[in-house]
Amino acid sequence: MSSLVVCTACGTAFNVVRNDVFVEELKDGESVAVFKADVWACPRCKRSILRGFGAPVREHFEGGYAKFMDTVRPKFKFERRFS
Ligand SMILES: [Zn+2]
Questions:
Q1: Which residue of 13, 27, 40, 50 sits 20 to 30 Å from the alpha carbon of 74, by its own alpha carbon?
Q2: pLDDT in the model for residue 83
Q3: What is the pLDDT of residues 7-36, one digit of tens each?
Q4: d(CA 48, ligand 1 centre) in Å
């Protein structure tokens, strides 16, 4: 897969600005999983995205989930919406 990401707002290629940040997934407001992903940003207009997700690092049904989330304190959160 190409790693080229282009900003639709200003037509500039994004760059990776941080690797392996923790990202929390919410479902109906409840924490369900945590992933690692990379932050990409547009150097011109500063819009940013998260991409490069792998499998979840932890899921809510695993033992020690709350303690793990307390330790990593994800800076980013997301929710899947289908409409
Ligand atoms: Zn831009």
A1: 13
A2: 81
A3: 999 999 999 999 999 999 999 999 999 999
A4: 9
44: containing domain: 15-75
Measured in Å, residue 49 CA sits from the centre of ligand 1 at 11
CA of 9 to the centre of ligand 1 (A): 5
Number of folded domains that form the chain? 1
- C-alpha of residue 13 to centroid of ligand 1, in Å: 8
Q: How far is the CA of 57 from the centre of ligand 1 (A)?
A: 30
CB 16 within 8 A of CB 38: yes
pTM, to two decimals:
0.90
Kindly report the number of other CB atoms within 10 A of residue 69's CB atom: 16
